Amino acid sequence: MASDTLLNFFQGRKFWITTLAVLVLPVTTCIVGGWVYYLERSQSYQRQTSLDMVWQEQTILGTLVADQHTLTNWSYDLGHGAATANSDFVARVSGLMKDEQAIVGVDVFDADDKLSTSIPKLELRTHRQPAVDDPTIAAARARSRDGGRLVFSSVVAAESPVWAMVLPTDVSARHGGTIVAYYDLNRFMEQTVPWWFIQRYDLGLMEADGHLVVLHDGSLPSDIDRAQTISFGPPGSGLMLKVSRHDRDSWWAVIGALALVIVLLGVLVVYLLRVLQRWLQQRIDAQRALSDELRFREAMENSTATGLVAFDLQGRIIYVNPAFCRLVGLSAQQLVGLEAPF
Hints:
Layout: H1 2-11, H2 13-74, H3 76-80, H4 85-99, E1 103-109, E2 115-119, H5 135-147, E3 151-152, E4 156-157, E5 161-168, E6 178-184, H6 185-192, H7 195-200, E7 201-207, E8 212-216, E9 228-231, E10 239-245, H8 250-303, E11 309-311, E12 317-320, H9 322-328, H10 332-335
Antiparallel strand pairs: 1-2, 1-6, 3-5, 4-5, 5-6, 7-8, 7-10, 9-10, 11-12
Helix pairs in contact: 1-8, 2-8
C-alpha cells in the first residue's frame, strides 16, 4: 500500500537524513549570506569611518594652524616695536576671540618672560584662564622661547580643561617674546566637531599618557584600545582623539538574532514533521482497522449456508452472497443489477 510505503519512509532513516539535508542547506545559506552581508557592511563602515576621521583631523588641524598663522602675523609688529602695535594687536585678538570662542585668553610675554599684554586684562580674567605664573604654562613658554618654535602645553585643569598654544613673537630669533593662546577644550570640541560626527561616533580627547581630558557626548568602550586614534592638531600637540562608532556591536547582535531565528525555524520544522508523522500513523492505523473489519465481515458472509440477497429502492439486486449463488446456479456478476421479473 502507498500509505505503508509512506509510513515506512517517515519512520526510516532516509526520512531523517532527507529532513536534515533540507534543513542544513537553507540554514547554511542564510548563515553564509548573513556573514557576507555583515562583512560587506563592516568594510563599508570602515571606509566611511576612515574618511570621516581624516576629515575631522584636517578640520582640527586647519583651525589650529589658521590661529597660529594669524597670531604670528599679528605679532610681527610687536617684535619690531611699532608705535600702535600693541593696541592694534589687542583689537585684532579681541575680534578673533569673539569669532572663535574656544580661545578664552591671549597673553603676550617679552623676552624676559614678563607679561606685557593680557587679553582680557588681568582684573577681568576668569577661572577659565590659568594663572599667569602657572608652572605648566611657564614651562611651555620656556621651551618656545629657547627653541624659537611653536610649543603646546599640557592640559591645565581649570574650570574646564585648558590647553595653551605658545608661539614666539619673532620666529627668526630665539630667546625673544612669546604669545600664549588659551583654549577651552570643551568649547573647542563643540566648535570643531559637527553634529553629524557626534551622531555617528563617541569621542574622547586624551593626553599622550592616556589620561582622559574631554569625553564628548558619549562614552568610549571599555576596550578603549580598539577605538581608532587621530592626531589632535599639529605634531607635538600632546593630545589625541579617540573615536569609536556608536553601532560597533550592533551587527554582532544582528548576526546572533539571525542565527537564533534560523535555529528556531529548524526546530519548528522538525516539530511539524513529527506531528505529521503521528497523524499519518493514526490514519494508517484506522485504515488497517477498517480493512480488518471488512475482511472479517466478508468471511462471515461467505461462510454462512443461508442465501442472502439485497435490493435497492428500485428493486434491483445490489448484493448476493456465495450461498445464494449456489442456490440459483448463477454467479454474482450475473445476478447483480437484475430487477424483477427474474
